[in-house]
Amino acid sequence: MYIRGDHVELVVGGRLDVRSAADARTVLHTAVDDGIGDLVLDLSELDSWDATGLGVIMGAHRRAGRCGRRLVLRRVPPQMQRLLVATRLHRILAIEGGIGVESLPRV
To answer: Which residues form a coiled coil (predicted)?
Structure first.
């Protein structure tokens, strides 16, 4: 897993899972704490995430809200869109362009 960028936009790539969660949490919390306005997470290079990785995203979302910021997901890969819909988190998280639920293939 890697994260590159600054306190305004971060690109997350690789696997966001139990092994990378602690490092990802640290980077995301620092970015939230050091900036103002929206924090954009570009997920176009993310290969996969597990429940722990999704928990890291939700933790960053909550922290951003407490800091008066908004976490915005950009370019969410289709397989991750399906997980957000299945968990109904697409209703809570800000997703740039939204998710076309009807266009997602059924699993």
So the answer is: none
Asked if 18 and 25 touch (Cβ cutoff 8 Å), the reply is: no
Give the global pTM: 0.88
Task: Please report which helix (H) or strand (E) contains residue 55, including its range.
Answer: helix 51-66
Tokens 């740039």 sit on residue: 96
Q: What is the CA radius of gyration of the chain?
A: 13
pLDDT category at 103 given cuts 50, 70, 90 is low
Q: What are phi and psi of 17, to 5 degrees?
A: -140, -170
Residue 67 has phi, psi (to 5 degrees) of: -95, 5
Please tell me whether residue 31 adopts helix, strand or coil conformation: helix
Please provide the average confidence, as pLDDT, over all residues in the chain. Answer: 91
